[in-house]
Specification:
10 strands; alpha/beta; 308 residues; two-stranded antiparallel sheet; globular; Arginase, Chain A; 9 helices
Length: 308
């Protein structure tokens, strides 16, 4: 079986304005990198829109309505100081969440071995009723809840290696023992959550890293905390929040990862998925703001998915 790539041109219409780090060029850089002939075997699919029902499994109706009511007809709007809206943002957000939903279907029905969702806006900072940190809806949480509702599975795990803690995913998961969230991230750093002591109902595993941490500390955190906890949870589906802003070249933080670390982490996560859930992995783009580092890191990650 192949690796599916889900994306949509609507994700290029989410315009965050001059100088914003979560910009259209991020996705263009990824699309260009994945156009390399070595990715010719990817099963390229157009991301559908998430349905209202998909969103409502995670987000209250009042919040969903507020997000769409806030969309400007021209120029720019905002949901918070960092989360900018343009006329195309609503369609982009529906396609971003819908990509993860469609990827879950493709993986759970064995159409493909695994999937990567090259989408924006990202999602892991979006709490159930609050937009944050460039994120409107929590794409991976939408996918996790959909997987349980539609595919009759009990346990879904999300592992997040973005440099920023996914406070939104943790917030949505932390009282539900059938959902597992694990994160490596820089601390201290926005959004200020993600301490080891934050454990939910035993289903949250945080491994904060100090500024300037590199390959050694990252891999130790994965080997000593994240991977054993994931193995104990024994997921029936693994979703990856694939942020690449822990790269040494990224301008928004101070971790020192390299492309080889993303290859290693992807292989390690796939190994756990093969043990527990027949290798069923869905990966969704989160952060990454140096265009060259983002493109290289994403290509490395997808390359390892295709090799699984």
């Amino acid at each position: 079986m192949t690796t599916a790539l889900f994306t949509h041109n609507a994700c290029l219409t989410h315009d965050t304005g001059p100088g914003h780090p979560e910009r259209i060029e991020r996705l263009l850089a990824i699309v260009e990198a994945l156009a390399d002939p070595r990715f010719d075997a990817l099963d390229r699919r157009e991301a559908p829109r998430a349905s209202r029902a998909d969103l409502l499994r995670v987000h209250p109706a009042a919040y969903v309505d507020h997000v769409f009511a806030s969309m400007p007809t021209e120029g720019y709007g905002a949901l918070d100081a960092d989360t900018v809206l343009s006329p195309g943002s609503g369609e982009a957000a529906l396609r971003a969440a819908g990509a993860v939903v469609a990827a879950v279907d493709a993986v759970m029905t064995n159409e493909v071995a695994n999937a990567f969702c090259a989408v924006r806006p990202p999602g892991h900072h979006a709490e159930a009723d609050r937009a944050m940190g460039f994120c409107l809806f929590n794409n991976v949480a939408v996918g996790a809840h959909y997987a349980r509702a539609k595919h009759s599975i009990a346990r879904v795990a999300v592992v997040d290696f973005d440099v920023h803690h996914g406070n939104g995913t943790q917030h949505i998961f932390e009282r539900d023992a059938g959902l597992f969230y694990a994160s490596t991230h820089q601390m201290p750093l926005y959004p200020g959550t993600g301490a080891e002591e934050e454990q939910g109902v035993g289903n949250i595993c945080n491994a904060p890293l100090p500024p300037m941490a590199g390959s050694d500390l990252f891999r130790k955190a994965m080997e000593r905390r994240i991977l054993p906890a994931l193995d104990d949870f024994a997921p029936e589906l693994l979703i990856i929040s694939a942020g690449f802003d822990a790269h040494a070249d990224d301008p928004l933080a101070e971790l020192m990862l390299k492309e080889s670390d993303y290859a290693w982490a992807t292989d390690a996560l796939i190994a756990v998925a093969k043990k527990h859930c027949a290798g069923r992995v869905v990966s969704a783009l989160e952060g990454g703001y140096n265009l060259d580092a983002l493109a290289r890191s994403t290509a490395t990650h997808v390359d390892r998915l295709t090799a699984a």
